[in-house]
Amino acid sequence: MNILAIDTSTIAASVAVISEEKLLAEAYTDLKLKHSEKLLPLVDHILCDLRMNIDDIDAFAAGSGPGSFTGIRIGAASIKAFAHANNKPVIGISSLEACAFGQAYFPGHICPIFDAQRDEVYTALFKFEESCLTRLSEDSAVSIDKLIQFLKDKESILFCGDGLYKFKSFLSETLGQSAYFANKITSMPRASSVGCLALSKLAKGEISDYKSFLPDYIRKPQIDQPKKRYEYINTKSVVK
Prior knowledge:
By secondary structure, this protein is an alpha/beta fold. It has two domains: 2-95 and 189-203, Nucleotidyltransferase, domain 5; 102-181, ATPase, nucleotide binding domain (Nucleotidyltransferase, domain 5, 2-Layer Sandwich). It has six helices and 14 strands. The chain has helices at 35-49, 69-86, 95-101, 144-151, 164-175, 191-203; strands at 2-7, 13-19, 23-29, 59-63, 90-93, 109-115, 120-123, 126-129, 132-135, 140-143, 157-160, 179-181, 230-233, 236-239. The strands form three sheets. Strands 6, 7, 8, 9, 10, 11 and 12 form a seven-stranded mixed sheet that branches. A five-stranded mixed sheet has the order 3-2-1-4-5, sandwiched between helices. Strand 4, helix 2 (69-86) and strand 5 (90-93) form a beta-alpha-beta unit. Helix 1 (35-49) crosses helix 2 and helix 3 packs across helix 6. The longest helix is centred in the N-terminal third of the chain and has 18 residues, at 69-86. The relative contact order is 0.19.
């Protein structure tokens, strides 16, 4: 049983092929390239290295969000296309859960945070219990201040995700010694984690097809504000 897994929910993109026995291959990149430019070359690279073709894949998995709207759309569209063309099942995995899964066996709470703009984060709370990742709250979009209030009475909280780039100092200042931070290698969601979680779902029959699989954006995209129009009178601009 081979699963092709991807995650494009953040600025990073990764692709992995995992079997029931082991991780066969993974490619990860966090460069300033669009997911539409780097995702399919990563898939092709992985399959070529493994001397596989798409027919050798038994199921497709994707980080279904939340996260970057554009990244999630590209990942979802790619997985749906692969599944449709090959008549194979699709398995969606919360990208927050995949990020938490990468923090293997941290003894306290695990809180992935993805930057949701406007001083908000996509987040959820997890904990490893008897070597299994347990979900303690649903995926949601909240203000960073509200998240702090929710966590202030908890001890040993490990933060991960791209929200660290923006909020790490603030979390450290407000939560003090209760706050821990994932290292650079495990901080972002990885396709290998998506694939491993997908194997568990596949074993339970928790699958979708290309028609029913939908990404989980959590909230609607922010509507761009209309651009201001200017008239130039005597070289000075006046907002209309």
